[in-house]
Amino acid sequence: MSPTASLAIDDRLSELFDELSELTGQRNAIDGRIVEIVAEMDRDELWAAAGARSVAGLVAWKAGVSPSPAETIAAVAHRLEELPRCVTGLQDGRLSLDQVGVIAQRAAEGSDEHYATLAASATVTQLRTALKLAPKPRPEPSTDADSDPEPDPGPQPSVTTTTDEQYTSWHIRLPQVEAAAFDAALQSHRDALIADWRCDAEKLGGAGDQRPPMPTVADAFLRLVHAGWDAEAAERPHGHRTTVVVHVDVTDRVGSLHLGPLLSDADRQYLTCDATCEVWFDRDGRTLGAGRSTRTVNRRLRRALEHRDRTCLVPGCGATRGLHAHHLKHWEDGGLTELVNLALVCPYHHRAHHRGLITIRGPADQLMVTDHAGRPMTSASLARPPTQPPPDVAPCSGPTGERAQWWWYEPFDPHRPPSVN
């Protein structure tokens, strides 16, 4: 190559690098503003009012991005006040969203200054390595030095529960051997759920942002309960199965769980809509019967419903597993169990509808989904041509990216006292 041609290539690369540096700084600053907006939605829980399942779900839906960058934005937004230097670097255009996202997702509390300084020269891969080198949190030492240690009785299994207005939390403590068997059972059921999840993802093709959420350990636990509890139901007293029993007073429209607490109006409507439960109607303290036998969708109708709807019909969701057949005109209000009065919705949006966060109106061929303020919900993102000039920030050339000499690197340790200059 002649010197003249080489010089022309260098000049062209310099021009392109200059433009890339300027656009990268502007993009980083725009991402910083997006993080601020999402942080406000996270702080005030506005994502739930919009009908989304989570902050990351709202970002993926409204920004038209895939789940991975949406989770990164949500992670930075959640720690906005905890990482002021890193976020300022993002807003000034000096740091990228991926750099700050790695820190927000993995860094220990109090490490903002350490990683903000490191990110000025480290690539995303180098930041991940640095975070892996950080020591794990150490347990706090006991302050009760005068108490005599009691003899260790050995590992003892225990199960404790705590209940609030919406949830019941289970804390299960098992010895190592029993815990290993429990872990193996959970992993087996989660593997089966993930296999189904991948099949659904392949059917959706390239629509990555519409894929159902990855099955969690909680999903595997519920699958374990449903698979094992009913296996020997015939041998149990009265043939008990994993069926929720609800009592509803037809006069006062008051519902309660069998031998349990009263239900809110939203939970009563949710359970009597299509959840797999047994509903008994009472009047003046006397049981009348189990109501209309057509409340629950039969197999034939369910198949027709799945063929028509395929996924949760709430825009921006796309879940395909564990869907409920929702009565558009509530069953307790006289709605019929027919195809025109049914729609598939995921459990989250089913509850959200009965709690008033979203509204689903029918019939099925004229379905309308609105948020709590009555705004129609659509699956389209909010992206549109910009009307404002790009942020006025300094160009960003990116991290220096020199080879990391890890033997000289001192990882962040929250227990180390700060150095004094």
TrEMBL record:
<dbReference type="Pfam" id="PF02720">
    <property type="entry name" value="DUF222"/>
</dbReference>
<dbReference type="InterPro" id="IPR003615">
    <property type="entry name" value="HNH_nuc"/>
</dbReference>
<protein>
    <submittedName>
        <fullName>HNH endonuclease</fullName>
    </submittedName>
</protein>
<feature type="region of interest" description="Disordered">
    <location>
        <begin position="132"/>
        <end position="164"/>
    </location>
</feature>
<dbReference type="Pfam" id="PF01844">
    <property type="entry name" value="HNH"/>
</dbReference>
<comment type="similarity">
    <text>Belongs to the Rv1128c/1148c/1588c/1702c/1945/3466 family.</text>
</comment>
<feature type="domain" description="HNH nuclease">
    <location>
        <begin position="300"/>
        <end position="351"/>
    </location>
</feature>
<dbReference type="InterPro" id="IPR003870">
    <property type="entry name" value="DUF222"/>
</dbReference>
<keyword id="KW-0378">Hydrolase</keyword>
<dbReference type="InterPro" id="IPR002711">
    <property type="entry name" value="HNH"/>
</dbReference>
<keyword id="KW-0255">Endonuclease</keyword>
<dbReference type="GO" id="GO:0004519">
    <property type="term" value="F:endonuclease activity"/>
</dbReference>
<feature type="region of interest" description="Disordered">
    <location>
        <begin position="377"/>
        <end position="400"/>
    </location>
</feature>
<keyword id="KW-0540">Nuclease</keyword>
